[in-house]
Each structure stands twice: as C-alpha cells, then as structure tokens.
Design goal:
The protein is globular. Helix 5 packs across helix 9. It has one domain. By secondary structure, it is an all-alpha fold. The chain is built from ten helices and no strands.
C-alpha cells in the first residue's frame, strides 16, 4: 500500500513538474518570438486560436490576447472569434490545471493563503458554476483558481468544457465590442477624412 502511494506521489510530482515546465517554456517562447506569434493573427481564425493558447497558458507574460480578440472581432465574424479564442484559452489553461493536479503537495502548503481557502471552498460548494463564472469574466485570479481546481481534482474534462464555455462568452463580448466599436470608429474616421 505504501509503495502504491509513493508511486502515485512520484507521478503527481512528474505531472506537476512537466506542467510547470511547459508553462514556463511557453512564457519564454512568447517573449522571444512575440513578433512571430503576433503575425499569426494574419491567419484568421487559426491565428486567433494560436494566440489564445498562449494567452491562456502563460501566467507570467502579459499576452495581449484581449487586443487580438477585440481587433479580429472587427475583421472576422465576432461570434466565431469568441468561440475559437475561448477554445484556445481553454486548451492553454490545461497546463495550469495540471500544475495544481500534479503539484498537490506543493500547493497544499498554501493553505494559509487567503485566496486558496476561498477558492477551495467555492469550488467544493459551487463547482461548475464557480469554474464557468471565473472563466467568463476578465480576471487575473483565474490562474490561481485553476491551480486550486487541479489540486482539488475537479474533473479535467468538465473543467475544460466549462472553461471553454466561460471564455467563449467573455471573448464574444470582447469581439463584439471590437466589431461595433472599432468598425464604427473606422467608419467615422473615414467619413471625417472624406473617404
């Protein structure tokens, strides 16, 4: 029995370590190759998807995913931009989730932290509603929330689909703001310049 627990503990450390390494590697790639990543947006929906993966996966690097969604919402179909970018961010957040899932013992040391206690309680009591809500708003606390969800073993598949739904709602609002706001601004500028 002890041998099985030790093996499970090792697997958790490996999964958590790999997830943290992947997240940090994506941060480094985003910093070093930002010009290339930014140019991916020229590829339409695929570009939005790729940039959104980086936006959802990187904790340490401020990726202007919101600006890409806003801008592409004025160029492409805003509803599709919202769903595609929501999917990308949900895919990116899997690494953060796995950091909590695999690093459970490390994260448990945060028990005294205010956010940890609140997030744990909220996930235990409200589960799906909490994940959807935290995904659907502009929220810098989504990352620690996701780590706690992984640590609490909130189902990965359920987490993914709730996160995709919430992030799609958030990104649709941003894309439609770009569609109506930026498009109107460009029309107004063209009218003022006599185009």
């Amino acid at each position: 029995m002890q041998e099985v627990k030790a093996r499970v503990g090792k697997i958790q450390y490996v999964v958590g370590g790999l997830a943290i390494a992947l997240t940090l590697a994506l941060c480094v790639v985003a910093v070093l190759y930002w010009e290339y990543i930014k140019n991916v947006s020229h590829y339409g929906y695929f570009g939005v998807f790729v940039i959104s993966i980086f936006a959802g996966a990187t904790v340490l690097v401020p990726i202007p995913g919101i600006l890409v969604v806003f801008t592409m919402g004025s160029i492409l179909q805003p509803a599709i931009v919202g769903v595609v970018s929501g999917l990308g961010e949900a895919v990116g957040s899997i690494g953060i989730y796995l950091s909590g899932y695999g690093g459970q013992r490390v994260v448990q040391g945060l028990n005294g932290q205010r956010f940890f206690a609140k997030f744990s309680d909220w996930i235990r009591r409200r589960g799906s509603v909490a994940v959807f809500f935290m995904s659907a708003i502009l929220n810098p606390l989504f990352y620690p929330f996701t780590v706690v969800a992984g640590m609490l073993r909130f189902g990965l598949v359920r987490f993914f689909f709730l996160c995709w739904g919430g992030k799609s709602v958030k990104n649709m609002m941003i894309a439609y703001a770009g569609f109506f706001g930026l498009r109107s601004l460009l029309r107004w500028a063209g009218f003022m310049m006599g185009f």
